[in-house]
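In this section we walk through a basic example: taking a raw amino acid sequence and producing a predicted 3D structure, encoded as discrete structure tokens. The instruction is simple. Fold the sequence below.
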Amino acid sequence: MTALSAILSLAVVGGHVAPAAGQGVDETALRGSLRTALTNFLSSQGAREHISAVSLRVTFRGQRPAINVPVGTTLYGGGRPIAANSLWQIGSNTKAFTSVMLLQLEAEQKLSIHDRLGKWLPRYRAWRHIQIKRLLDMTSGIPDYLGEPALLRAYAAAPNTEFSPSRLVSYAVHGRLHRGYYYSNTSYLLAQMILEKATHDTYAHQLQERVAKPLGLRSLSYRPTPYPRAVSDRIPAGYFFTPIPAMKPLLGHDLRRFNLSYAAGAGGIVSSLADLSKWERALYAGRMLRRKQQRELESLVSQKTGKPVKRLTPADPQGYGLGVGKNLSPLLGPNWFYEGETFAFRVLHLYLPRSGVLIDVAVNSSTNHDLLNDVGAAVYLILQDSGVA
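The resulting token sequence is shown next.
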């Protein structure tokens, strides 16, 4: 199934819910269309992606109530129905939190994103001239530790190992630097280490004080140790289903109760979709940063060239900011987006600045066969058809 056919099949199955002239949106029909589309996706792709659950949250600008559509069960092949308030490993959606906290420190004059790595982490001499900003916009060229078979073998052998950021970075220190735009999770471990050094505090505590408490995000948290059962019981089973030789012992296994220290400040946050969407609205509305730092957050480099770009074009449609992505889509128009992935979960968000619609979708596996972006696009088409996007 091609990406386009997947989008169209999901949207068509959702049904036509456009309001009649002079009438409001039929909320029941809209929710039914979204549920049908997600059910169709789960039926057609569940085995191929090894997922049992897909959860959707749509929020709107203003006072319009959110739409929550959880579909499926907590276990592959059975379990309880998935709940709207389930928790998810949000993967690389974490990167925006890391960037924002560093930008807040810049506004407090505790660091500058133009500082070089040598000022804060002099032990990494080969990288000493790289600026913090280049860590955050994926132009540092520093090798990605998650691409190192030695790290993957270590995790597969003992998934509850508590990896420190410095140990994770050690898997990448001897790799060669890359040119241009290069997606490196290692860069965000270094950013986390700088944050902790500048604040003399832990990443977890800074996250609570700077983000979770001010926004009232009671379900959002980060910890490098296993979560207590009260938390992990709210997370559906999460399946590793990516054919990586070094990780073969874990293929098809539920990893939800193992810790997320391997992802750290690059991908280690757990959240409900409600809290995640509340954060994303605050992020894109500019409520987390001063104006200068918001501009820095949204300054883009081309994902083709790694060069700064002022605006995206059809020939160069994807840009990367400081932990945020932007896309110029023929279907969606300009949109901010990110799909985060851990070894067991995928979470996508799409923010459409023209309409103010924010779409969050989560599923409970990692896989090479990933159609989550297609699900987001199908949801958008149904919302557009209903007159709310």
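Looking at the output, two observations stand out. The mean pLDDT is 94. The first helix runs from residue 3 to 14. In the next section we compare this with other chains.
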